Amino acid sequence: MTDHTLTGQTWVAFTKVGAVGSVHRVTNGFTFKLLKDEDYRGVYPTLDAAKSALHANLLPGTDWPEFREH
């Protein structure tokens, strides 16, 4: 991810096994990070696009996560 500023708005993604990652609002959209990641992933134009990208990076067959804003 290029240098973007986090705005403080965060959604934590939960599956049956617990928290798996988080989505964050940045200056130009939204980014996400899985728990195993050291850095944030790309920037997406909408919250829904970032949530979909996070889900696409989970193990195949994983149900859609519950996203809770924090």
Topology:
Layout: E1 6-15, E2 18-26, E3 29-34, H1 47-56, E4 66-69
Antiparallel strand pairs: 1-2, 1-4, 2-3
Protein name: Methyltransferase
Organism: Rhodoglobus vestalii
Instruction: Report the end-to-end length measured between terminal Cα atoms.
Output: 22 Å
Strand content: 35-45%
Mean pLDDT across all amino acids: 94
Judging from the principal axes of the Cα atoms, what is the shape? globular
Structural class: mainly beta
Kindly state the percentage of residues in helix: 10-25%
Number of strands: 4
Number of domain modules: 1
Radius of gyration: 11 Å
Largest sheet: 4 strands, antiparallel
Number of helices: 1
What is the H/E order? EEEHE
What are the segments in which pLDDT stays under 50 over at least 5 consecutive residues?
Answer: none
In the sheet with the most strands, the strands line up as 3-2-1-4
Question: What can be said about this structure in brief?
Answer:
The chain is mainly beta and 70 residues long.
How would you describe this protein?
This protein is mainly beta. The chain has one domain (6-59). Helices cover 14% and strands 41% of the residues. It has one helix and four strands. Strands 3-2-1-4 form a four-stranded antiparallel beta sheet, covered by helices on one side. It comes from Rhodoglobus vestalii. This is Methyltransferase.
